[in-house]
Amino acid sequence: MANKVKTILISQPKPVTEKSPYFDLASKHKLKIDFRSFIHVEGIDGQSFRQERILLEEHPNVIFTSRNAVDHYFRMAKELRYDVPDDTKYFCISESTAFYLQKYIVYRKRKIFYGNIRFPELLPTIKKYKKDKFLLPCADILKDSIPNALDEAGIDYTKAVMYNTVCSDLSDLEDVKYDMLVFFSPSGIESLYKNFPAFEQLKTKISVFGPTTRKAAEERGLRIDIAAPNPNAPSMTMAIENHILGKS
Fold first, then answer.
1. Kind and range of the H or E element at 97?
2. Which pLDDT tens digit goes with each residue over 12-37?
3. Contact at 8 Å (CB) between 154 and 128?
4. Can you tell me the distance from the alpha carbon of 175 to that of 194, in angstroms, rounded to the nearest whole number?
5. What is the pTM of this model?
6. CA angle at residue 247 from 243 to 248, to 5 degrees?
7. Same fold for the domain at 2-38+168-244 and the one at 42-165?
8. What CATH code is assigned to 2-38+168-244?
9. Which of these, 16, 55, 56, 115, could form a disulfide with 122 (CB 3.0-4.6 Å)?
């Protein structure tokens, strides 16, 4: 029964703000919601990156799709002893990613553009500078939709893998049971089975966000109990609440 959900494990880091909708959901329905990142990233060292023969100085424009990309771009620049020019232009997938740049640069003195989370919203701005060369710092796992969109737009860019997505050690959760597990990426599903090869779903409810995550779960033979976003729930918290209330 949907109303039997009392304990939930979110396969992401705990929100840093107390205003997270997950905390509201837990309070409203008296749920025990825990957070644990099933994956983490590990940076590629400068020596290995040099072997790719990618020169940062040849790219006056940088596209950031996450905070991880920001961190590892500036880390790599430091390792390679490359002083990022003040006139470098930054194209960020969201406003929060753009503001995160303040960790490394004087924000108000730089050329910074940002979209509203979805990459297609940023593309028109990128196209205005299509005569220039772009760098796309990223992980070894990157959604095909991003490079595909850049290719279709005729953007001259270089995909620069600066960090790897790695499965986290979850061995301490071996004897911990939850009514629901929530996943946001295929890598999270991979981590589940890498840590627990003999995992059996049984009565555990599986929630997935996005079509690629759903596909990865189904390929593992998992039963999908909640899939977001959907017409009645654009967010995972809304989808979970609808399920608890028997609306899904």
1. helix 95-100
2. 999 887 888 999 999 999 999 999 99
3. no
4. 16
5. 0.78
6. 60
7. yes
8. 3.40.50.10090
9. 115
